[in-house]
Amino acid sequence: MNQRGSKMRSLVRRGWLSNEHGAWVMTVLPIAVGICTVHPQPIQFLLLAAWTAAYCSFHALSLYWSASPKRRRTYLPAFLTWASIAVVCGVPIIIMRPHAIARIIIPITLFCAVATYEAFRKRRRSIASHVSSVLASSCTLPLSIWITSESYSQYKLWCAAVAVAAYMLGSIVYVRSLIRGANKLSVYIVSVAWHLALVVACLIGVLMHVLPGGVLLAFVVIALRAILIPALHKIKHLKISPLIIGLGEYVSCACLFSAVLAIVA
């Protein structure tokens, strides 16, 4: 067990893997939602492999730019390997589904450009970096469905992508309110305000018959977790274990899946 742990730490130190668990979720979740929305097809898993490899290569490149000149060579093998995998997996999708790629190429290029610029400026953890990364990843949700069939409604799929982006952006602040910003009331207030704003937006959408009621219910549950869990976590004799927090995220993801399926249906 210790040897396995040391190997993992070695891979993280050399840029092969990211130790930011939230980043992995944000990379995989939109495409996973897309796969679950339709009958799964091999090309969707090819997209998942390409996008995951692209993220890993971006992570290694970010470390390369942040490192001192003497340490930069450490990250080159990881970057070149992951970038090659991304190209090998991604080019066939571009060749086979050019029209689907064309639908998301402008927004995803802009968001990736912002994230890359922030990494180049050694600001991987900036707000602009987080937001642009989430938005870029969210674009893969409609793409993961359009590569199977281009007949799906653009309006519905972009609404689903916005719902996923809103959830992931809220999760960034929510997790921060439990860990790094646990002692900062301002972080908790921002998290609560964001989630309440999402509930209000969903309510307006339901009243205008733009969104189904299931979306509102899902985001009410997600908002309650963002309000109650950090509040209970601050009470010493009610301190919530990481296991409970993790299980709560499974519930949140289940709510998100149900909301997206309600939108796309």
Structure commentary:
With 265 residues, the protein is mostly helical. It folds into 2 domains: 1-152, no CATH class; 153-265, no CATH class. Helix content is 79%, strand content 0%. It has helices spanning 2-13, 21-37, 42-66, 76-96, 98-120, 127-138, 140-146, 154-178, 185-207, 213-233, 242-264. Helix 5 (98-120) runs antiparallel to helix 6 and helix 8 runs parallel beside helix 10. The protein is globular, with a radius of gyration of 19 Å. The termini are far apart. The model has no long low-confidence stretch (mean pLDDT 89).
Poorly predicted parts: none
Order of helices and strands: HHHHHHHHHHH
Shape: globular
Using DSSP, what is the number of strands? 0
Fraction in beta strands: under 5%
In total, the number of domains comes to 2
Descriptive tags:
single chain, 265 residues, 2 domains, 0% strand, 11 helices, mainly alpha
What does the secondary structure layout of this molecule look like, with pairings?
Elements: H1 2-13, H2 21-37, H3 42-66, H4 76-96, H5 98-120, H6 127-138, H7 140-146, H8 154-178, H9 185-207, H10 213-233, H11 242-264
Helix pairs in contact: 2-3, 2-7, 2-8, 3-4, 5-6, 5-7, 6-8, 7-8, 8-9, 8-10, 8-11, 9-10, 10-11
Could you provide a short overview of the structure?
The protein is an all-alpha fold.
